[in-house]
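Look over this record as teaching material.
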Amino acid sequence: SPSRGLGDVYKRQGAGLGGNGTTIGSSANIVATGIAAARGHPIAFKKYVPIGLSIMVLTVLVANLYLIIMW
């Protein structure tokens, strides 16, 4: 059914974008924080989370609005 398909899309989108909220939530964040630390610019988990979670919430909201409008 269409509603089930949309629910699956929301789950995949949440899993994909949700990992961006923390330094260990996505492989790209792990690599980026490792490179930054190796170059003398460590990124503390506690400093990253408020910014990362804010951006994650914003991107999830925008993606949800897009899905609502386009679906």
In short: The mean pLDDT is 86. The first helix runs from residue 2 to 18.
